[in-house]
Amino acid sequence: MHDNLTAFLRLQQLADSALPIGGAAHSFGLESLIDCGLLDVDGIESFFIDYLEEAGVLEAAYCALSCELGRANAGDNLDRWLILNIELGARKLARESREASASMGRRFLELAARVSDLPLLQSAVGRLAQSGTQVHLAACFGLVAGVLGIEPQLASAAYLQQSVTTLVSCCQRLLPLGQTRAHEVLWRLKPAIVRAARRGADAPTDRLGCFTPLLDVASARHPTLETRLFIS
Questions:
Q1: Could you give the CA distance from residue 195 to residue 47 in angstroms, rounded to a whole number?
Q2: How many CB atoms neighbour CB 165 within 10 A?
Q3: Domains plus CATH for the chain?
Q4: CA quadruple 51, 55, 57, 63: dihedral positive or negative?
């Protein structure tokens, strides 16, 4: 019981949206959507429900697969894990969002390896330095959670909770969205997070689609904004 509680507390720490991995610097296309008037305060909740049904399920799937590899705690699984990252990166059409995910993923893995001192995570960091492969936040979160002994569905739900909380925080800086209303939205999104985590953990990635053309175009358009608060 003590080990389970310790792992759960560590998962909570890693799932904190304030973790210093650069999340506050990226909006993943939300800034562009808001700039052109396609997203406002009243539409935030429905937007994130749709986001979870598409991008959320896809990322949850790669998080869960990475978690399973981490739970096996075998060094030879790192090759399979790197392939998962390449697949996930190929499915991120907009360069801005793809590079943001990779930057945050690398920082997350490096931070987790440093604070935990776990051999598999340190080996993963070493492999990145050698191969130069981009690793993405969803897959890195899953790998770390798996090494800690977390179940794949729980890992995916925690990852999605972190992601959506970070994005809602972006909206607070871009829209007249107060703390109380932001937390009301996050509270009501919990069932959608659970659904996405379950679907992602149960479905093979080759059978999952992710159709978010508006968000992809907004992410690609981000560098053309006259003024920008976020990197992506």
A1: 16
A2: 19
A3: 28-224 (1.10.4190.10)
A4: negative
Phi-psi region of 25 (alpha: psi -120 to 50; beta: other; left: phi over 0): alpha
Tell whether pTM > 0.90.
yes
CA distance 227 to 193: 32
Q: Name, in order, each residue with C-beta under 8 angstroms of 191's C-beta and a sequence gap of 6 or more.
A: none
The mean pLDDT of 73-97, rounded to a whole number, is 93
Structure tokens at 204: 């093979």
200 token code pair: 């992602």
For the chain, the residue count is 232
Instruction: Note the helical H segments in 42-178.
Output: 44-51, 57-72, 78-90, 95-116, 119-131, 137-147, 152-174
Average pLDDT over the chain reads: 93
DSSP 35: H
